[in-house]
Amino acid sequence: MSTTSSSNGLLPTSMSGRHDDVEAGGSARTQDEHHEQLEHDPNDPFDLDNTKNASAQSLRRWRQAALVLNASRRFRYTLDLNKEEHYENRRRMIRAHAQVIRAALLFKLAGEQQISAVGSSPSTPSASTGNFDIDLEKLVSMTRNQNISTLQQYGGVKGVAEKLKTNMEQGIQEDEKEVTDRKSAFGSNTYPKKKGKSFYMFLWEAWQDLTLIILIIAAVTSLALGIKTEGLKEGWLDGGSIAFAVLLVIIVTAVSDYRQSLQFQNLNDEKRNIQLEVMRGGRTVKISIYDVVVGDVIPLRIGDQVPADGVLISGHSLAIDESSMTGESKIVHKDQKSPFLMSGCKVADGVGNMLVTGVGINTEWGLLMASISEDTGEETPLQVRLNGLATFIGIVGLTVALVVLVALLVRYFTGTTQDSSGATQFVKGTTSISDIVDDCVKIFTIAVTIVVVAVPEGLPLAVTLTLAYSMRKMMADKALVRRLSACETMGSATTICSDKTGTLTLNQMTVVETYAGGSKMDVADNPSGLHPKLVSLISEGVAQNTTGNVYHPKDGGEVEISGSPTEKAILSWAYKLGMKFDTIRSESAIIHAFPFNSEKKRGGVAVLRGDSEVFIHWKGAAEIVLACCTRYMDSNGTLQPIDSQKEFFRLAIDAMAKNSLRCVAIACRTQELNKVPKEQEDLDKWSLPEDELTLLAIVGIKDPCRPGVREAVRICTSAGVKVRMVTGDNLQTAKAIALECGILASDTEAVEPTIIEGKVFRELSEKEREQVAKRITVMGRSSPNDKLLLVQALRKNGDVVAVTGDGTNDAPALHEADIGLSMGISGTEVAKESSDIIILDDNFASVVKVVRWGRSVYANIQKFIQFQLTVNVAALIINVVAAMSSGDVPLKAVQLLWVNLIMDTLGALALATEPPTDHLMHRTPVGRREPLITNIMWRNLLVQSLYQVAVLLVLNFAGLNILGLSKDSNHAHAVEVKNTMIFNAFVMCQIFNEFNARKPDEMNVFSGVTKNPLFVAIVGVTFVLQILIVTFLGEFAHTVALSWQLWLASVVIGLVSWPLAVVGKLIPVPRTPMSVYFKKPFRRYKASRSA
């Protein structure tokens, strides 16, 4: 049976995952109820549980279905559905007309420079190329046209490097003047950004609200009629007050929106600022992509982004993905025949060094970036659902406004409406036309103002507000959010698949155990017991088969070792053994390389010594390299068969792995020169021999667990989030670290399939993988594809999966997961671009903080919904009942606009910026399809709104007697006092209820209030402004000054909401969500239709 459901918050769709939200009043449900909620309604445009890879059609569908009063504001932060098409058009244009576009941009920048006469454009080089022997325009033209003949005329890469005064081995000199000279001659690696919207644009967008436009028209009409009938002194008040209130709403809205946009702008700047390594003065230094200059030598590795245009100096198996610039998704291999590299492309495979020849707007990538604006838009599942909720409430509000309008008009024209003095407002044949029009405009204004209050235009935008706040705070917690939706989806995460190295461990590696010469060395890095021939081969294997570097300062300072943590550990160990890095690299040459591959778990190089001898060096996972070895070199430098010692080495690897050590083996073999391909083309296709290897050494590398990771894992477990470790390391090493981190509770748990090898998992059938995935806690010797298969299996089981990754091959798993988390330090650019959140310190504890923030986003939105709906329900009921019964409303247009300001903009600011609390981690994950308005919220909302309605209606109908105003000789004044009291008490109720909204399920609503100074400030400012409005803006706001007794009574009425909230929280709520009861009539109706 199919059921109708809606994710607008009143009619939920389904639960994603198996957990309920405690704050949301969730608990164990019967199978039928759970099944009932799991159903998805394809007819509901707002039923989008995941927007990460949603189709443009489904995104367009919900926008068309939403009730929107201000489209430019409501859809400001949603995805630009034409973005891809616009990008593609710009890319094609730039590829075809790069020279013309560059010339136009340079002309524009030069003009701006002259006009401002302040500073100079960072991207505009001077006409002169200074001390360099090559012309900028010729250099740019050669690279853009990929002109090989021009490159050869300059003497190839070597000739260009000489003209640019660059040492191809050591890079440019590492001094500020050198960099400045190059920037002034060839430009800097920046481009002029498209200017963001000014504050005036936000004012204009806030003004686009349909109801506000109608109110302004009504205000102008009222103003004209008022001045005509009552004169300027008295006549401007009604129309003028409404116009001023509308302008105040527009200004406050614009200021809030503008602040948000600045926060997003800062985060975008952070995302674009890529850090990369360059060679300067022989050292590998890390710099910002903006600091790259022409002449720089940049090492390229798998997953890197090409930071500027350039020419390949040297490379092995280098393959570039040029799809971002050419639009063709094919991998292009780069060598001396095809040496040109384009900025913005990605390294798909291999390694290499490039010489930078073009930066900034002298590259096609720079021109493209300068011509498109940064798109911060992206809808989130919560944003879509809130649009559904806003649409539902808006329809109710419009209906109520229409009822009020009809009721007031009917009462007015039937002569039953009286003014404040008791006189009948409309008498047929007596009342003038101008009075009738004036009275009708006032009635119409009240109806429109009810729409302003009733349609929660700010509700979907509250998500953006809380996300902007959360993203800014998460930066301090070392998490950079790339996709907004990930921030809130993290609150629903039921499992985290984490890497081991650098995430659960410190990534500070040192070699602590060594097996070489057939036995264990007493001291891991003491060469005294080893034969010089063995030390020489180890040194050559380490020095040549690495992407790291060893730099000896000229002043004799401490040696600097760079590279990945594993590379640095092995280089440091070999250096202590006596490795002469520079000497070895100069005496032998790499003729072919097989870069380290996470599938094969090893990497190798072919090294030519002199003219006749070729050695092939391999380095990688110990048990895999050991399986390829047939001999080992003993401590005397003699080659011995390995068969008798193989078991000894296996046991040694197991022993090290059980001590949490990463085991790496170093091996080599000779290769006859005549079996090595002579032609470069054949050499590029040559597979390095990996059989009959000679084992040289096995090293055990210690990488300690991060402090606090055990506690972070415990917090996750208690919060209903299962932590799984997925690592490429040996299963024994993985098990030891998992026990140390608390991922595995004890040794008894470490049985298959709780702990499993990637190879075993990938060989299972799809159905078996889904069954086994639920039980997996540790996966060792896993490839990136195994990680992808695990993520897919877990998602099919209903889990909301967060996965960490740092390598290029992790990109598919990061993309497939609900939340992809890449590593900021060790992660490649490809991994970062495929991820949703970048963990800047690579620390698992930061991942846990992201979970807290994700839950905080959802909780804050629920707080705001509860607060806003309480105001909506109370204001609508009071005005409807009063209008139907007396033909007048106690809450006037200006007053309702002030309430709307408290509720919408100020309320969102106060509640959407609540910091996360530990309480959030004492509950299970938020179901992604959990109803937005939960049973606890319904209870709180109904208790408060019924109290407010009861008190204010009593004041409306019996206020004159209760307040002792019935004996007042001036009846009109008495009515004004009563209406002011109703308005004041209503606002006091909202101010005090704002505290209740902070803690929907806790008794103490004041806990942590001092940690949110913005909340305290907004409540304080609201209170002060209310005093000023009532006391000093009488004629303007339709109020009169109240006595201190009435002020005290107003405060007491508001204050009662606190003890009332405590009592209300003692009322039990049913387990079944209220939304299920709402849904039943729809289900029955649909069943009867299909029967």
Automatic annotation (TrEMBL):
Bias type Basic and acidic residues, positions: 30-43
Record SUPFAM superfamilies: Calcium ATPase, transduction domain A, Calcium ATPase, transmembrane domain M, HAD-like, Metal cation-transporting ATPase, ATP-binding domain N
EC number(s) reported in the record: 7.2.2.10
GO molecular function: ATP binding; ATP hydrolysis activity; calmodulin binding; metal ion binding; P-type calcium transporter activity
Main localization (coarse): membrane
Location in or out of the cell: Membrane
Region Disordered, annotated ranges: 1-51
Protein name: Calcium-transporting ATPase
The encoding gene: LOC108829081
